From TrEMBL:
InterPro entries assigned: Cyt-d_ubiquinol_oxidase_su_1
E.C. number(s) listed in UniProt: 1.10.3.-
Entry's transmembrane regions: 20-38, 59-80, 92-117, 129-152, 179-201, 222-244, 282-302, 314-335, 363-386
Protein name: Cytochrome d ubiquinol oxidase subunit I
Entry's Gene Ontology molecular function annotations: electron transfer activity; heme binding; metal ion binding; oxidoreductase activity, acting on diphenols and related substances as donors, oxygen as acceptor
Keyword annotations from UniProtKB, A to Z: Cell membrane, Electron transport, Heme, Iron, Membrane, Metal-binding, Oxidoreductase, Transmembrane, Transmembrane helix, Transport
Family per record: Belongs to the cytochrome ubiquinol oxidase subunit 1 family.
Major place of residence: membrane
Class in the EC hierarchy, top level: oxidoreductase
GO annotation, cellular component aspect: cytochrome complex; plasma membrane
Any Pfam family the entry gives: Cyt_bd_oxida_I
Bilayer disposition of the protein: Multi-pass membrane protein
Coiled coil: none
Lineage, broadest ranks: Bacteria, Bacillati, Actinomycetota, Actinomycetes, Streptosporangiales
Length: 414
């Protein structure tokens, strides 16, 4: 297959995986914040926190529902465009993906359904337990996905048998540092994303001088506190990962030695990381720096509740800061994934050898279909989030009791 088909297949996966990742980050963070708010409401009986659960929980459900579609469609690409990868590495790479689907995804979606439709029908403590199961299985799902990705970055716990990878050490696979550190990096990145999202939506309503001042003042405080507590762990877990970054991403003598080793074993190729990886790293660092500045401003504002309500410039700052974690995540993903080229499994399987043996026309058709589909899903999700966020807590339908059926009115007289 030609280089054009390979490039299109790579771009297609980049677009779909990057788009899906943005859904995942907000889902992880919002699920946690909603669970914490429901815990506060259940323990204390706070009416305002109960309303916060319904409002922010509805936005979480919207993002989760559309994100599920992007995740299911994205996985079709492995069989469609990357059959060579499935044949050679499916015995290892497929294990955490199967565990994510069976152990985490089905449990998460089942308990989320019970949480949504069990409102006011289940005991309040049981209902609280449901959202915590949803949250913890969301973490588990993210962990298994990063185990699979971590193996692509640093393959461990396997042996080659008849040209195919076979798992020999499940513990090594599950405790791979490139997976564990990435998991905590992504987890705190999700908290950061949800914190900025909550603060931005609250800032919008406070800027418009909403009547729900107490509701959005409390929501603003939750969002800002989440940002302040998450921004440093994100940087720390991101920085620690550099100890396991491939030498070809970092340059220097170690990169030259790695290139020489690959050349002797696999023949000449472009083994150094492409320039796009460096651009992704620079943009990621810039976004984290901006978020650190916003977090510093938030730390100053937090003790003064009146400023959170009256500070119109601060409200605008929080609104325009909502995209920062999204840009940082996507650019960091570019650094992590593009920098691995020309390998799909580092040092084991090249990207061009992982491609399916299909015609270029098939790749072009799937590229067009997937790009349009994911573009539509992204726009629909953004539109729904904006629409329901602008309505405020009075427009939250999650957990609302259905209107009582009216008794038929009999005409005439008895």
């Amino acid at each position: 297959m030609g280089a054009d088909a390979l490039l299109l297949a790579r771009i297609q996966f980049a677009l779909t995986a990057g788009t899906h990742f943005m859904f995942v980050a907000l889902t992880l963070g919002l699920a946690t914040l909603v669970a914490l708010m429901q815990t506060r409401a259940t323990v204390s009986g706070s009416a305002v926190h109960a309303r916060m659960v319904r409002f922010w929980g509805q936005l979480y459900v919207i993002n989760y529902a559309v994100g599920i579609v992007t995740g299911l469609v994205m996985e079709f690409q492995f069989g469609l465009n990357w059959a060579g990868m499935s044949r050679m590495t499916g015995g290892v790479f497929g294990v955490p993906l199967a565990m994510e689907t069976i152990v985490a995804f089905f449990v998460e979606s089942t308990f989320l359904g019970l949480w949504i439709f069990g409102w006011d029908r289940l005991n309040r403590w049981l209902h609280l337990g449901l959202i915590w199961v949803v949250t913890l299985t969301a973490y588990l799902s993210a962990y298994f996905i990063l185990v699979a990705n971590g193996w692509l970055q640093r393959p461990v716990g396997f042996e080659m048998v008849d040209g195919a990878a076979r798992l020999t050490d499940a513990a090594a696979l599950l405790t791979n540092p490139t997976a564990v550190l990435a998991f905590f990096h992504v987890l705190f990145g999700g908290f950061l994303t949800a914190g900025f999202f909550m603060a931005g939506v609250s800032g919008y309503h406070l800027l418009r001088r909403t009547a729900e001042v107490e509701f959005f003042r409390r929501s603003m405080r939750v969002g800002l506190l989440t940002v302040v507590l998450s921004v440093m762990p994100v940087v720390i877990f991101g920085g620690v990962q550099f100890a396991y970054v491939q030498p070809t991403k970092l340059g220097g003598e170690s990169a030259a030695a790695e290139v020489a080793r690959f050349t002797a074993r696999f023949g000449p190729d472009e083994y150094m990381a492409p320039g796009l990886a460096g651009a992704g790293e620079a943009l990621m660092m810039t976004m984290w720096s901006l978020m650190m500045l916003v977090a510093a401003v938030a730390l100053v504002k937090l003790p003064f509740g009146g400023w959170l309500v009256r500070g119109r410039v601060f409200h605008v700052l929080m609104i325009v800061s909502v995209p920062l974690p999204y840009v940082a995540m996507v650019s960091g993903w570019v650094f992590r994934e593009v920098g691995r080229q020309p390998w799909v499994v580092y040092g084991l399987l090249k990207t061009r050898d992982a491609l399916s043996d299909v015609g270029s026309g098939t790749v072009v058709a799937s590229f067009a279909a997937f790009t349009v589909l994911f573009g539509v899903l992204f726009v629909v999700n953004a539109w729904l989030l904006v629409r329901f966020a602008r309505r405020g807590p009075e427009g939250a339908g999650l957990g609302a009791s259905p209107p009582a059926e009216q008794a038929p009115v009999l005409s005439g007289t008895l």
